[in-house]
Amino acid sequence: MKLNTKKILTCLTVILLIISTIPITVSASEDRGRDTDDKRPEIAKNKSLNESEKENQEEELEEREEKIERKQERIEEKIENKTEKREEKLEKKRERIENKNEKLEEKLEERKEKIERKHERVEERIKKRKEQLENARNNYAKAKSNFHSINKKVSGNKLNPNSEKVINATKNYLNSTLDYMIEHLENKKTNINASNANFTDKSIEDLNEYINELKQKRVELKSAETREEISEISDEIREIWRDAQTNSNSIAIKTVNERINEHLEKSKSISLRIEKEIKQLEAEGKNVSDVEKLLNGYKEKISNIKEHQSNAEKIYSNATDEKSIKDAKLKLQKAISELKEANIILKEIFKQIKDYRNDSIKLDGQKDVNASGDGTAVLSGNLDINISTADAKMVIKDFSGDAKVNITGNYSKVNRNKNKPEGLKDNRALVYHGLIGNINVSGSSLTVMVNGENIELNADGVGSIVFSEGDFGIENSSNNLKVGLDEDIKNTTSSNTSSQYNNTTDNTSVSTVGDE
């Protein structure tokens, strides 16, 4: 009983403890409920703030995107404007080049026509003068033959020397002699005019004086009636002719000397340019010993020419007779012979340097190069190229993928994808046939080959141009040996010094009455 009571008490104690904890739990639950209720507005507030921030961020992002789009549009617009300006600039440049080429062609054509007309007039005058000289020579020969026949009869006492027949035959002979002399001097004048010598005016003036003196003797001869009067006039004619011949020889030597001096003056600059080119080729590791030997031979010929010319001048300046004059002429003929040989050597030098150089031109970005002609040109580098052609083939290789090609005209494109816009990004080699028109090619790493006739090109940038065949004229190239030397050789060898020498030193033998 006592045990049960104890158990009952224990149970009651436990129950009381349980009951006492219930309010605390309820209170805690209520507190938690209150806390939750208190936090709900704050959570809602925070949620609202997060949504607002998100909206702000989205707006900022949109603004940023719009800003980027506007910036991109401005950049694209700027690029487009720049491209348009560049295209306009290129178009203007092309127009300037075309206008320049057209004007140049017109000037060259006018100059060519003018030279041709002048040449035709000169040739016609020379031809006419030669015909007149030949007629005068024939008349002189007939009159001379007739005079000899009459003179024989006089010597055989078959005719009176003072008879009218003898007087008329003698006067006729002297008149034909005067005609021949005058025509001969007129022919000299024509040849001197054709030579374009610096002393042409003075020489013509001197010859005109002799011609007028001879014409005056013709007037005097007409009124002469006696053999003594005719003989006196004949002596005067002989004296005039002797002076005229001496003067003609002087003119001849001056003319040839002037031409030789022109060649010698050109030879100085040509030698210097060849030496410069030899040094450049040696610096590139090329063996140019053959060219050096040729150059030494050329210099030796020039030295010989100077020596012969100097000797001729010394002999002529002290000449007192015909033999001295002939010796002076002989020295000049030797100088002319050496000059011909020097020009042959010069052509060979040019040929060998051309083979070494293959007509290469370097572009340094400072000057553009204009070229025109027929054949093949290969352009490489960072270039802006303008080409005009009437019929050509063109191959373009783009190694950096940034090349631009603009063609105005007709052509057939060999590459596939013919409908693609011009450009090389997707197709790095383009081949065109039958090109007629204007082409602009630009890029940072290009190789452009163009082959055809009537090609005109302008290249600007850094790189090189190689003319592998054909004939091109080039402007604005500091290292263009081909055109410079070729032009010098042409000018040096085109002057027919030997022909001029022969024309001005033709000694016509004319006898008068006293010589018979």
From TrEMBL:
The keyword Coiled coil applies. Residues 29-55, 64-96 have a biased composition (Basic and acidic residues). Residues 28-96, 492-516 are annotated as: Disordered. This is Uncharacterized protein. Residues 182-227, 325-359 form a coiled coil. It comes from the Archaea. It comes from Methanohalobium evestigatum (strain ATCC BAA-1072 / DSM 3721 / NBRC 107634 / OCM 161 / Z-7303). Keywords: Coiled coil.
